[in-house]
Specification:
mainly beta; single chain; 43% strand; globular
Length: 412
């Protein structure tokens, strides 16, 4: 009953807003994507159960790839193995309070589920950044499991699902589970310790609240730990982003001033830029306010890396006239020549909606997939093509989450 009532309310609200923000001709495109794309949706239109993975190529309607059949379930594609033979997925619903990490083959057939699981409470702390990585021979997978505040990074057998060993287990910290991220070589981990010190909260426009997170970098070979300094020298403080760069050389952190800190109800504090740090916590490069100001960037999200020299991020301006949802763009930053480029600007006058994190780059870096929210508050999957056009993959499914590109099958 409650689900039916809420569905009716959301649909009615969407229809009302649609009258004020009509959709443009970009609502649907028949342009082919450079690679197929998998995303999560609901085959029967349920607003609250995203139980199916569908496959889209942009030129035709998305087709079902995998459907999780247990009641009140959710499915999410996480990562492909190096050859593109296996797909790691998260499945929620079969267990009362936990998510299963499982493996599908390239045809969408379930191969195995790993014996250890992740609690829903711990999973929520990742805010969409949960990851699974693979050994080069695809026989082992690396991911985080655990219950509530006790989590650990493990190595597991892809064929049997058995846990082979625990690679790292941080101590619990306050009331939030530690966040563990690791390098592609699985030789270093970065551990962030939860939401103890809120940085800002901008709930009126559905922006995620962000908190300062003390953390450490750990060398898994020597167990040496290096504390990451929250406070930047003579400037402000760091908010560390999830994960390492593709080759494990850098950590990224947004840099803010101390203004309005640590008032829980404050608006965005002034943004000073983006800092890139090495594994010792030393700043090696910055994208500073002087570079951001010409593009009217007052806020930014954590970046998505294409390669070790190129990253992309969402950013925009804050004003009394426009909210962050209505004034944002996608930007590219090149480390090698310290160049910032605007890729696409979004707003009510130019776009039927706005992108939301995370940005998901195609294997060749030429296209960007993201969750696209139109002004009726309906969430779809869209792709920014190299031409600058936006393809919205909204037919026949009106909603979508968690896009993931399908790499070429490079098995020999």
């Amino acid at each position: 009953m409650w689900r039916t009532i809420l569905t009716t309310i959301v649909v009615a609200l969407g229809s009302l807003l649609g009258a004020y923000f009509p959709l443009s001709s970009q609502a649907q495109s028949d342009q082919s994507l450079p690679f197929p794309l998998i995303f999560t949706t609901s085959l029967d239109g349920d607003l609250f159960i995203y139980d199916s993975l569908v496959l889209a190529d942009g030129a035709s309607q998305p087709t079902p790839f995998y459907t999780y059949t247990d009641e009140d379930t959710a499915a999410r594609a996480v990562s492909w193995s190096p050859s593109g033979q296996y797909l790691a997925v998260l499945l929620e619903g079969a267990l009362p309070d936990a998510l299963q990490i499982c493996v599908l083959d390239r045809a969408g057939q379930l191969r195995t589920c790993f014996e250890e699981t992740l609690s829903r409470y711990a999973y929520r702390a990742f805010i969409g950044n949960y990851s699974v990585s693979w050994s080069a021979d695809e026989q082992r997978a690396y991911f985080v499991v655990g219950e509530e505040l006790t989590v650990k990074l493990i190595e597991a057998d892809v064929q049997t699902g058995e846990t082979l060993r625990t690679l790292f287990q941080p101590l619990p910290f306050h009331e939030s589970p530690p966040l563990i991220h690791w390098t592609p070589a699985v030789d270093y981990v970065a551990v962030y310790y939860g939401d103890q010190t809120p940085l800002y909260r901008y709930s009126s426009d559905y922006e995620d609240g962000v908190s300062l997170r003390p953390g450490v970098v750990v060398n898994l070979q020597t167990q040496e730990q290096i504390e990451l300094q929250i406070h930047a020298p003579d400037q402000g403080f760091f908010y560390f982003c999830e994960g390492f760069s593709p080759q494990g050389s850098y950590l990224a952190a947004r840099l803010y001033t101390h203004e309005n800190f640590p008032d829980y109800n404050a608006a965005y504090p002034p943004l000073l830029g983006l800092a890139l740090l090495d594994k010792t916590g030393e700043v090696v490069q910055t994208l500073d306010q002087a570079q951001l100001a010409p593009y009217d960037i007052d806020w930014m999200h954590c970046p998505a890396w294409h390669d070790e020299e190129t990253l992309y991020f969402l950013g925009g301006a804050i004003s009394e006239e426009k909210s962050p949802l209505e004034n944002r763009g996608i930007f590219r930053y090149s480390l090698s020549d310290d160049t910032l480029t605007e890729i696409k600007r979004f707003g009510p006058e130019t776009s039927p909606g706005f992108p939301q994190d995370p940005l998901v780059l195609s294997p060749d870096g030429m296209a960007i997939a993201f969750r696209f929210v139109d002004y009726r508050l309906m969430s779809e999957i869209a792709v920014l093509l190299p031409t600058g056009d936006i393809t919205r993959l909204n037919q026949p499914y009106e909603r979508g989450l968690h896009p993931l590109w399908v790499p070429p099958d490079v098995r020999r």
